[in-house]
Amino acid sequence: MLGKKSDPKDLKKALFLERKNAWDHIPESQQKHLETYMKDYRSFLDYAKTERESVDTAIEILEKAGYTDIRKTQNTNKIYYNHYGRALAVYRQGKSGVQKDLRILVAHLDSPRLDLKQYPLYEDEEMALLKTHYYGGIKKYQWVSRPLALHGVIAFPDGTVDTIVIGEDEDDPVFTIADLLPHLAGKAQMEKKANEFIPAEKLNILFGGKPFNDDKELKDRVKLNVMNLLNDAYGITEHDFVSADLEIVPAGRSREVGLDRAFIGAYGQDDRVCSYASLRAVIDANDPEISSLVLLLDKEEIGSEGAAGANTWIAELVLGYILARHGLDQSGVIRRLLANADCLSADVNAGVHPDWKEVHELLNAGYMNGGLILSKFTGVRGKGGSNEAPAEFVAKLRDLFDKHDIIWRIAELGKTDEGGGGTIAKFMSYYCMNVIDAGVSVLDMHSPFEITSKADIWMMYKAFCAFLES
User: Fold this and answer.
1) Rounded to whole angstroms, how far apart are CA atoms 463 and 351?
2) CB 3.0–4.6 Å: which of 46, 70, 135, 267 could bond 79 by disulfide?
3) Strand, helix or coil at 127?
């Protein structure tokens, strides 16, 4: 107890919470390692713009680090499980074995985007266009008048699957959604609300403009020409679109942002910034005592539904494989292991925007350069649809992160009745485990060019490593 006779400045320093800048707590000795990590992270972003590409890229990283497909080995020390090519589980056995506790990191690989409809291609006014259906929460106007790329797969009835990526190489064509010029937009757009002036059914991709031949009596000559080009390149017909997962994403690579290169700007950082940190942490953690499970899942942006989302029993499936290798494939063992686990639901939060402070409750907000962000609860209006971490688990993490000089703070997603949202945390809490959201602050979240702080990313990576090593 300090008492009333203490110097007020000392008392204030001891009793008040001080907001810290993460850059002030990154020593010179870590700067080179930090920049190497950021270079590798940006490479991941550039090659992993869809959930499928994220899984493929993550497996390449894992295999270089000595991890093996669980279906190809009896060893359970360092293994991964590829779930339909759209979700991934990684397991690293700790020194204490398979039954002694568990540390879990869970993140998601999907990001808001535009998906092609099942029958997307049509011609109008001698232009070929593709119809889309937006995926996740987007501001539709952010996707017009910008270069876009086509990524995805086409599955054929004979069982073969072809990958398509158009718009990323320097010599590739790109695609776009043409907006209406301001001279004609007065009544059509400017008098409408922001969420109305680009209707969803007008998010159509400009895909081609040359006719197939000079036969002007031939209908849909431009559509025929682009369909013929697709057939030459990929052997597809229009009917093959029905068995395809084709996504429209921003074209181009990630960039460093700011004259001092303090930030990273890229598509898909929600939530690949946390997915990559989770992946690297399970690989880089120093000789962990307790076993680690990393789940990188799909469909979080639309509620975690579907066979590759968090609202499944994928954690039980993977642990069942592992325990069976040790003669312990029992549901009771799996459930006790999950119930005793500690889990970080690795997801991002909103960073305070200097020009839009009014939507944040600044005392409980996340800040750029503020380090790791913990969200004790999420949900909307009265914490609806939320997991809420218990005080004891928060205290445990406070002690861990403070001991490792990790800068962190607790934050909510906007004012109480202003913002909100859901994460994977509530689905993990169904297993009765301790779980809390942990990630970084993001500017321009859900846009085609999201902004993160290198200092925050570094603190998150260090925190995840410490969590798995604890």
Assistant:
1) 19
2) 70
3) strand
d(CA 415, CA 365): 9
Residue type, 117: K
- Cα(328)–Cα(375) distance, integer angstroms: 35
- Which DSSP state fits 226? H
What confidence tier does 99 reach under pLDDT thresholds 50, 70, 90?
confident
Q: Are 275 and 107 in contact (CB under 8 A)?
A: yes
- Selected residue with higher pLDDT from 329 and 288: 288
What's the rounded Cα separation, in Å, for the pair 230 and 263?
38
Largest interatomic CA distance in the chain: 96
Domains of the chain, first to last: 17-111+267-469 (3.40.630.10), 116-250 (2.30.250.10)
Phi, psi of 421 (to 5 degrees): 170, 170
Q: What is the pLDDT of residues 380-425, one digit of tens each?
A: 888 877 889 999 999 999 999 999 999 999 999 888 888 777 899 9
Q: In what order do the strands lie in the sheet with 255-257?
A: 255-257, 263-266, 450-453
- 130 pLDDT tier (thresholds 50, 70, 90): very high
**Tens digits of per-residue pLDDT, 211-220?**
999 888 899 9
Tell me the CA end-to-end span of the chain in Å, nearest whole number. Answer: 31
- What is the pTM for the complete model shown? 0.95
Helix 269-284 to helix 28-47 angle (10° resolution) is 120
Are residues 451 and 263 in contact, defined by beta-carbon separation less than 8 angstroms? yes
Which pair of structure tokens corresponds to residue 465?
A: 């490593």
Tokens matching residue 195 = 């969420």
CB atoms within 10 A of CB 355: 5
Q: What is the pLDDT of residues 12-59, one digit of tens each?
A: 888 888 899 999 999 999 999 999 999 999 999 999 999 999 999 999
Residue with tokens 């590829």: 82
Would you call 89 exposed, middle or buried from its count of C-beta atoms within 10 A (0-12, 13-18, 19+)? buried
Give the integer Cα–Cα distance in Å for 375 and 390.
12
Q: Tally the residues of the chain.
A: 470
DSSP 8-state code for residue 417: T
Contact 30, 239 (CB under 8 A): no
DSSP 257-304: ESTT--EEEETTHHHHHHHHHHHHHHHH--S-SS-EEEEEES-GGGTS
Residue 211, SS3 per DSSP:
coil
Closest to 27 (Cα-Cα) out of 288, 407, 400: 407
Distance CA 323, CA 334 (A): 8
- Provide the residue type at 443 as one letter: L
